[in-house]
Amino acid sequence: MKNLTLKQLFGEGFYQDAQVIKIQKADLPGLTPLPTNTAESLLCAIVLKAWSNFEGRVTTPEGIPITTPSGKFITFNNSNYYRRLLISLWRIVFYQQRNLPRIEHILLITFFAEPTHPRDEPITPNDLIE
Amino acid sequence: MAEPTLQQVFGAGATQTATEITILKADLPGLTATSDNNGEQILAGFVKRARTYLTEANQVTNPDQSITFGDTFSSFVTRNDQSYRQNQVPINFQKVDDDFDIQPDDY
Predict the structure, then answer these.
(1) Chain A residues with CB inside 8 Å of B67's CB?
(2) Chain B residues lying within 8 Å of A89, measured CB to CB
(3) What is the DSSP string of A74-122?
(4) Backbone angles phi, psi at B60, to 5 degrees
(5) pLDDT tens-digit profile of B5-47?
(6) Are A42 and A31 contacting, i.e. CB atoms less than 8 angstroms apart?
(7) Looking at the complex, does the CB of residue B51 fall below 8 Å from at least one CB of chain A?
(8) Which end is more exposed in chain A, N or C (fewer Cβ atoms within 10 Å of the end residue's Cβ)?
(9) Number of A:B CB contacts under 8 A?
(10) Are residues B84 and A113, on separate chains, in Cβ contact within 8 Å?
(11) Contact criterion met (CB below 8 Å) for B41 and A129
């Protein structure tokens, strides 16, 4: 199995060196770039960009989903293709909080390490090297 | 309370301009920085950094927080004939549901 490339996960304009990581806002679909986007909108956009590698709908270059003659979307799913990572939509929940109806999307980010990894230790970024 | 700041979610050295976000590798826990870290390591670093602040407990006191991380599930799994230790991290995105009521015109 392969690993995802940095450009697939974070966009074409991704840059890293030994100290910093830079991600271009234009590479994050669904985000309107502003001089100060909120931190949560940036986190959401980064997660969505990474998620788009695993499942989604086939779209035109402009982003409009393509449908079959019977009107269904064409979806793709790469869940077992990449070795160390998988992102999927788990479920959507409707609930009330502070007297307002709310909708919650729950995504699952799954990291895969070697099976010899000690059971009681959390997986760290260093466990995902190859 | 307020929207979570860039520094709370991405680390003390994070900055942004109108076109890009810059994050310091030193702020990502558990990541040994090289000039060539792979994508999964970096994403795991982002997750570990963001979830120290974006907890469900913090959201109870901060109505402006819309993203929380749930508890991690750990298990073993086989994929393509190889064994792996798997950690799953749920990330919850919440927003107000403007259009929740039944509307005759929608049907």
Answers:
(1) 40, 43-44
(2) none
(3) PEEE-TTTBSSEEEEEEEEEEEEETTEEEEEEEEEEEEEE-TTS-TTS-
(4) -60, -35
(5) 999 999 999 999 999 999 999 999 889 999 889 888 999 999 9
(6) yes
(7) no
(8) C
(9) 211
(10) yes
(11) yes
